[in-house]
Structure formats: C-alpha cells, structure tokens
Amino acid sequence: MFNFFRSIFEKFLRVPKVVRGKDKFLKVDFECKSITLGNPHADWTIVPDFLNENSVVYSFGIGYDVSFDLEIINHFDLTIYAFDPTPKSVEWVKKQNLPKQFVLKEYGLADFDGKAKFHPPENPDYVSATMLERSYTKNEAYKVEVKTLKTIMVDLGHKEIDLLKMDIEGAEYKVVDSFIKSGIKPNQLLIEFHHRFKNVGVQQTINTVNKLREYGYSIFHISKTGEEISFMLSSDCPNVK
Predict the structure, then answer these.
(1) CATH placement of domain 33-233
(2) pTM for the complete prediction?
(3) Buried b (16+ CB within 10 A) or exposed e, 88-114
(4) Interval 108-120: pLDDT, tens
(5) Residue ranges of the domains in the chain?
(6) CA distance to 81, 157, 197, 226, per residue, from 107 (Å)
C-alpha cells in the first residue's frame, strides 16, 4: 500500500513539468512477467525469460554503482560487458572486488569511432560526465575513446545482443539513430533518457521512442520518473496491445 501511494505521489510531482512541456507521461505497450534489479535509483526492469548463462549483455554507464550488473550476474551466471571511459568510474571499479564475469571496457558509446570530449558535472562529488556541452565545466572537459555499437560488437565478436542498458548522459539519442541505421536490434533495450537536460528537451525523447517503436520495439516498463524505459522487440511479445 505504501509503494502504491508513493508511486501516485511521485507521478503527481511530475505534473507541473508536463504542464510546462518539460515532461510527458508515456504509456507502456504491453505487460509481462518482469523483475527489477539493482539498488534504488540505479535499478532497471527486465524480462528474465529471455536471458540465460549464454546471453550477451552490454551495460553502458557504470558510475559508482554496479548493483544492477552484479544482480544480473547472480541471477543468470552470465558475463556482463560494462563500459565507462570516465576516469573516476574506472578508478572506482578497479578498487572493487568484482566477479570475473564482470568485464570492464574503458571506452564509451557514441555514434562515431574516435575521441569525444566529456564535460564533468558541476558537483565534483558526482561522476557522470556528458558529451553534451556544459558551460559551467567547459574548461574542465577531457577527451576519451568512444566507439559505435557496431564497432564494439565486431571487436568483441558478438553478432547479437540479448540485453543492452544505456545510461550515457544525453548521448542516447544519436546512439539510437546510429544503431538503427546499422540494423542492430538488441532483444531488450534499457535506456535512461535525459530530457531533463536544458540542451535536450522532452521532444527528443518522444521522437526517439517513436523511432524505436517504428523499428520494432515495444515498451514494457517505465520508471516512476519517466526517464528509464524498458523496451523489447515486439516480435518476442505475443501480447503486445
């Protein structure tokens, strides 16, 4: 009962943003058996029936929390490929006692191969950097290696991806365009959208969600904030509305 009223309250808090055109209540396309893994504020909802020890899982954007990744490993005994080029994140991960199935790659995801300028957050205690310009930390920007999803799959020898999670601080919009153009179709997509950023806006999220639906994906879960959305290929979901 508490969680129910909390959910209603959190949605209520979003109403002013919706009225101002800075947020939008999207709808799920179908309901299915799902589970939520990870710590609060770092959790993701997945459909477990499509994962096993042989599944290919990519997790982009690690920060200081690998709870979701560890729970995926514990549930399915699979190898998870984690990607983050942020120096603070890489340093933090290397200090953790992680299982061998957690494989860290020290580069990021983008719509091109090469070097990208990362702008750190204003608060030095935070870790999430972005390829989007941040005027207040413009002079602190640094360059990191990035690759397209297509290049990463070739490098790692994967022809398909069973689960792809992206928390890449605003770069998700161009990345989605890139892998659609390449014809790549991960079975499940978990994306944190960053329309709250001033230089993004909710319309970009709406446009990208529509592109994914046209590309063959359906939404099976949306977080209370409306920013984390879980997709699955519609062909795998017989009960799509």
Answers:
(1) 3.40.50.150
(2) 0.90
(3) bbeebbeeeebeebbebbbbbbbbeee
(4) 999 999 999 998 8
(5) 33-233
(6) 11, 17, 23, 28
